[in-house]
Design brief:
The complex is a heterodimer of chains A (362) and B (523). Chain A is of the alpha+beta class. Chain A has two domains: 200 residues, CV3147-like domain (CV3147-like fold, 3-Layer(aba) Sandwich); 127 residues, CV3147-like (Beta Barrel). Chain A has twelve helices and 17 strands. In chain A, strands 15-14-13-12-11-17-16 form a seven-stranded antiparallel sheet. In chain A, strands 2, 3, 6, 7, 8 and 9 form a six-stranded mixed sheet that branches. In chain A, a hairpin with a 2-residue loop joins strand 14 and strand 15. The longest helix of chain A is centred in the middle third of the chain and has 18 residues. Chain A is globular, with a radius of gyration of 20 Å. The two termini of chain A are 38 Å apart. Chain B has 523 residues and is α/β, with parallel strands linked by helices. In chain B, the strands form six sheets. A six-stranded mixed sheet of chain B has the order 3-2-1-4-9-10. In chain B, helix 4 crosses helix 5, helix 9 packs across helix 14 and helix 11 packs across helix 13. The chains are: A alpha+beta (362), B alpha/beta (523).
């Protein structure tokens, strides 16, 4: 399918929900993608199944500081620089572009890249949501390496980074980003078609698209927006209430914290605690865990159904909490080692959200 | 001789004028109906209060206007200027063009041409690339040919380093000295698109503001007040001289909302509270912190995202003239309002539209000083059980809005102001105390009349490059300079607010410093 401006807007809305509280505000990304779709080449979205074993697949994304991204907006040609550089390095033509993180702002950057290069975009990603660290990618689980990766800035400076492991890749990439002025475009986890078909969370873009479209149409028709969200994501309404407390603590450079929600309507006299670290990671009703990472926990405004990112949580907001099952790849032993509750320092065993919800009789 | 100040506030339903003395004592006030052109209503209100008080006009030293002229001009797309837009930031920033998400009808009128030129700075203050001076001259010459009314200039990280914006101002002065240039570092904060939007809107409303000043100057002359100094209420709860305001009209867009919050402070002397301003159409609820309105992050002006400083408020469509519909068990409150026609259409005035005021009268909580108002009418017309049910729902709506404005569950003092505020009970959930001060119906105009002159400056620094002390001094000095420019008496200057915000994930101790300086009106 060819993406339209309306599709881009819908994907941005859906991607914010899949961001589960993180992934950055897709607003700037959305405006970039709108302009790219209007002015650039046609963006064709293709299914992962059509990829051949030896096709060269390049995920593109953006990294950097939110303050810089909202001020020094990208030029638009950076994805062309990263693609050219990675093609040169591997001496292969990139056949497809793909997102690596469908939640938040990085859902939009590959659309920009596709529009300015004319390369088709694959309907998959490496998370099915948003996560904060480089190795938290399904491709990592099947042994694809993050590097050699490319970083480019708006001037056309390009760096090839080949690190001994993902820890060093993260460390060096951050330093380069700072030298670029606080933001960079990246091509990372470049891989072959056979790896992509095996490792990708398939349908990530159309999921965001359907989600955004359903929300828009539900609003237009005046029907229940939450039902539309739950229907498409096969998710659960975990809670409804008012935020009565938000605590934040800065541990090891991550914005950790906790929000307490006091229930109303059918949740009257109950309390939910959400523990977050960039993304929402654990949801607890009264004293019982109801959902945990890698399942998605998204907090939305009860009137507008607009997702609220963790940095914007504050006292007094009326919210609904939605839980969405993650991709099965994350539910394996290897997956949970990388993104399970224990990796983030919570002494909790992971259990699929649908089982927890059933046990608690929600 | 006692000196007086006349304050005017334009609301959606009524325009008020008050006279206060230099010690902030209320003398008297008058309310008239807001007119579509705004200016006639202002003149009517001033005339009414002058006639009522019979104060010697020569003792009125200043007139302070809180007006909706600018926001109306933008919403109605009336009288707006053609703007040539320059953004300095290429090769960065080209992925989003100026005005990309503006309402199409507004963009077409305002943004007649734009150029994105190489230059701009990093967060450290170093240039991204060298400034393309030839491209600037070319753009300016093009704007000259097109006869743009004003030029809006926005450079990447200009609040860290404004040199590229200043260079363009210099070139424009040479090449097209008659055309005003608006620089973004004087308008907004970090966030290129929002700051650029505010800068363009400011440029587009320069002509409108000049027209307003001319009309009001004439009005003052007609009223025998030509000697009085003109001030305009600002979004942040301060006022500024007409000379300042004709350069920065965008700072007046939501001033009437701030006026009410300032007025609540002046009337009660309570520095920290939640203020509920209930007029005829809406209730605006905002927080009063240390005597000033709490400010929000983003301000939407007629569908355009900006980041100018403005009060953080929650608005509900529930005020004196709000229409109440009862269909069986269902009660629909607003958001439609009869507005100023309350005194014809309201049941208490013999009409047949049920309004929030009728409910409050039937409930017996409200007294209206108007011989034409008959509280017994709604009492006869309405079933008491229904009245109780509707009133309870109204109060609940207000309480929820108040709760959204609060930042913690701690009970707070609630101050009720505005013409419709008498409809509220003296007890509210989450309130430590509910106060409706004397002259509450004139709080907005009193806020305008008693405000201090103020100015804001926001700059960004890297403490690795500039010491914290030097950065603070620089910002404070600039804020003071700007406050004097806005009309403050230099002898009375004080720093109302210093805010230091760390920019996360950046090395070099990158911070933003915001300073607000205030002083008394130089009369």
């Amino acid at each position: 399918m060819i993406l339209t401006v309306q599709d881009v807007k819908d994907i941005a809305v859906g991607a914010a929900i899949l961001g589960s509280g993180g992934g950055g505000d897709p607003y700037i990304g959305m405006l970039m993608a709108i302009q790219a779709v209007e002015k650039g080449k046609k963006v064709e979205l293709m299914e992962p199944e059509i990829v051949d074993d030896n096709d060269f697949i390049v995920p593109v994304a953006m990294m950097g500081t939110p303050t810089v991204i909202i001020e020094k907006i990208p030029g638009g040609e950076e994805p062309v620089y990263v693609l050219r550089a990675i093609e040169r390095y591997y001496n292969k033509d990139a056949k497809f572009i793909t997102p690596i993180e469908a939640g938040g702002v990085n859902s939009m950057i590959p659309i920009v890249a596709a529009a300015y290069t004319g390369k088709p975009l694959l309907n998959g990603d490496g998370m099915g949501r948003a996560f904060p660290e480089l190795q938290m990618v399904t491709f990592h689980l099947i042994g694809v390496k993050a590097t050699p990766m490319i970083l480019s800035d708006e001037r056309g400076n390009t760096i090839v980074l080949d690190a001994i492991d993902n820890f060093w890749a993260e460390k060096i990439a951050r330093a380069v980003t700072i030298k670029f002025g606080g933001s960079a475009y990246i091509a990372i986890y470049a891989m072959m078609g056979r790896e992509y078909r095996r490792g990708a969370v398939k349908g990530a873009i159309t999921l965001a698209l359907e989600l955004g479209r359903a929300i828009r149409e539900a609003k237009k028709r005046g029907v229940n927006v939450f039902d539309a969200i739950l229907d498409i994501t096969k998710g659960f309404k975990l809670f409804k209430g008012k935020i009565v407390d938000v605590k934040r603590f800065n541990i090891g450079g991550f914005a950790r914290g906790e929000a307490v929600i006091e229930g109303f309507d059918e949740f009257k006299n109950r309390r939910m605690t959400i523990k977050f670290q960039n993304e929402n990671l654990i949801a607890i009703i009264d004293d019982e865990v109801i959902a945990s990472t890698p399942d998605l926990i998204t907090i939305v405004d009860i009137e507008t159904a607009k997702p609220i990112t963790t940095e914007r949580l504050r006292y007094g907001l009326r919210v609904a909490v939605i839980g969405i099952p993650c991709d099965p790849k994350w539910r394996t032993e290897e997956g949970l080692k990388v993104v399970g509750p224990r990796y983030f320092g919570y002494d909790i065993n992971y259990e699929p959200i649908e089982i927890r919800v059933k046990r608690l009789g929600l | 001789m006692t000196k007086y100040i006349l304050g005017v506030d334009v609301g959606s339903t009524h325009t008020d004028a008050v006279i206060v003395d230099e010690n902030k004592n209320f003398v008297d006030g008058a309310k008239v109906i807001t007119t579509p052109d705004v200016t006639t209503g202002i003149i009517n209100a001033m005339r009414a209060v002058l006639e009522k008080t019979k104060i010697d006009k020569t003792s009125i030293m200043a007139v302070s206007f809180g007006t909706t002229h600018i926001i109306n001009a933008i919403v109605q797309r009336k009288g707006l200027g053609k703007v040539g837009v320059i953004r300095i930031g290429a090769p960065a920033t080209r992925s989003i063009e100026p005005g990309i998400d503006w309402p199409e009808s507004l963009k077409k009128i305002v943004i007649v041409d734009y150029s994105i030129i190489r230059g701009g700075h990093e967060y450290t203050g170093e240039p991204i690339v060298e400034l393309d001076e030839d491209a600037i001259d070319k753009a300016l010459m093009r704007f000259k040919e097109m006869r743009v009314d004003a030029i809006a200039v926005t450079s990447v990280f200009s609040i860290v380093n404004p040199e590229h914006e200043l260079y363009i101002a210099e070139r424009a002065r040479k090449l097209m000295p008659e055309t005003p240039v608006v620089l973004s570092h004087e308008i907004g904060s970090v966030g290129l698109l929002e700051r650029e939007n505010a800068t363009i809107l400011n440029a587009a409303t320069l002509k409108v503001m000049q027209g307003v000043v001319n009309a009001l100057e004439k009005a003052l002359k007609d009223l025998g007040l030509e000697h009085a100094k003109m001030f305009f209420a600002q979004n942040d709860g301060t006022v500024a001289t007409k000379d300042f305001t004709v350069r920065y009209p965008i700072f007046t867009t939501v001033a009437p909302i701030s006026n009410s919050i300032r007025g609540a402070y002046v009337l009660t002397n309570i520095p920290n509270a939640i203020v509920v301003d209930t007029g005829g159409t809406t209730s605006n609820i905002g927080a009063l912190i240390k005597g000033y309105p709490r400010e929000g992050l983003e301000v939407d002006i007629a569908g355009v995202r900006t980041n100018i400083r403005a009060p953080d408020i929650v608005s509900i469509g529930l005020a004196g003239g709000t229409i109440i519909k009862v269909q069986g068990d269902e009660i629909v409150i607003g958001p439609e309002s009869v507005g100023y026609k309350l005194v014809e259409l309201g049941i208490a005035w013999g009409g047949n539209t049920l309004t929030a005021t009728d409910i409050a009268l039937a409930k017996g909580v409200m007294i209206i000083d108007d011989p034409k108002c008959k509280p017994e009418l709604p009492k006869q017309f309405l079933d008491l059980a229904l009245v109780n049910k509707v009133y309870e729902k109204m109060v609940k709506m207000l309480e929820e809005a108040i709760d959204k404005v609060k930042t913690s569950p701690e009970p707070e003092i609630i101050i009720l102001v505005g013409g419709g505020s008498a409809m509220w009970p003296r007890r509210l959930a989450g309130a430590k105390e509910v106060i409706r001060p004397e002259y509450a119906q004139y709080a907005n105009a009193i806020g305008a009349a008693t405000a201090l002159v103020g100015a804001h400056v926001e700059k960004a620094f890297s403490y690795d490059a500039v010491s914290r002390e030097k950065a603070m001094t620089l910002t404070i000095e600039e804020a003071k300079k700007k406050a004097v420019e806005a009309g403050a008496d230099p002898a009375t200057l004080e720093i109302a607010e210093v805010e230091e915000i760390a920019m996360p994930y950046l090395p070099g101790n990158a911070v933003r410093i915001r300073v607000k300086a205030v002083g008394k009106l130089k009369l």
